[in-house]
Amino acid sequence: MKRLTRAVLIFAFSIPSSEVFGFVQSAAPNTGTTLKWFVLPIQYRINSKGTPDVSGTAEFAAINAAFATWDAIANSDLSFINGGTTTAGWDIMDVTNTILWFDDASDNPAVAAMPDILALTRRRGDAVSGQISEVDIALNGVAYSWTVSGNDNFSSFRGPADVQAIVTHEVGHLIGLDHVTSSTSTMFVSAYPGDTSLRSLSQDELSAAVFIYPSAGAPAEASISGRVTRGGSGVPRAYVAAFQAGRGIVGVLADAAGNYRIHRLPPGTYLVRAQPYSNSVVVTQSVFYQSSTNVDVNFLSIFYPNTASEPSATPVTVTSGTDTPNINLSVSTSGNVDDPFEQDDTGSAALPIAVDGSAQIHHSWDSNPLARDEDWVTYNAVAGRLYVIETRNLGLRRDDSNAEVIDSATYLELHGAGATTPPYPAPLALNLSRNSFEQDNGSRIVAFEAANAVRKV
Fold it and tell me: Is the whole model's pTM more than 0.90, yes or no?
């Protein structure tokens, strides 16, 4: 799994300003002002060099399709104009919103030093008003090959990456969105080469576009509001999401005092969950969110009203045109269960997991980090395919940058179907947490399957 983007933000001189947080909008350094375009439509141009990995001009059509996906959102004024090809390069001051490839280390030496970055987006704007004035998107052709016909499988860690899928994600940054930590969202922090799921937008992006760029005829919104507190004090930038069937539908960052409002929810019944967002440079592109003062991650996730168990959560119903208020959550730094998605199971109770590149199990260590705390999943492997199983520390509760491996250690094992109860047979493969010098304390196993098989992790 590779990080999709690293953004560079260039802003005018700034002074403190008020905050209006919705979804996970990118924030200006120092001020925290959320970012958006004030003038629509947004014109973009594609560097005429394209990529040598794709024949003809099919990569241009794939880029246009990515913009069209956002342009087609109902009840939103968000719109784009294709200004044609250009020879403009990676110049954030040339008044041209450019999409281009870096195909040689000499194009941009920084890319050669970041082989885990599929794409880079940088913006120029005003930190006081939050107005975006220019954006450039660069796709990494130094470390990755590219395709316009991704098939949700891939031949190597270096690609081919799907042009339309990756650009669709990057357009989210272009309009002012930051990463989220839910793998069902287009704005999830990482992707696999070849994965095409990012070509489509989740409800989170659809709602964000209507909230940030509403059309005159947009219907009245349904919403949920409340406050996240710990010990009576507000929790800055707690992430609060409305769930259905275990999937995050729409989420939002609370403000500095812990107040939140989940905007533009489709009418229905939800479970509301508060969880840490992140102050890790691995997750968020906004420097503002990388400060522990601005983003508090030192608490355990809970469902409303105050339970770590999803079955014990109280449903919250929203109706069109109304806000459901006072859905308040009181979090703490300790509890019997660290996370409502903990399984603490054995191989015999392994849960099935999808293998489409977007599968994710939310997990935290036991309160005692030395405890042997097992979570199991199972999947059906298909002959001839390469499988990547990865754990990641997304910066939730514990700090990625902490040199103490114990703070984020994971231990990953791949087993056959016979792994049911302890003592388990020897694993087919295993991997202990990588070291902090790699700025990624997760574990990864890559397995090529010669025959169909049932696997457990």
Answer: no
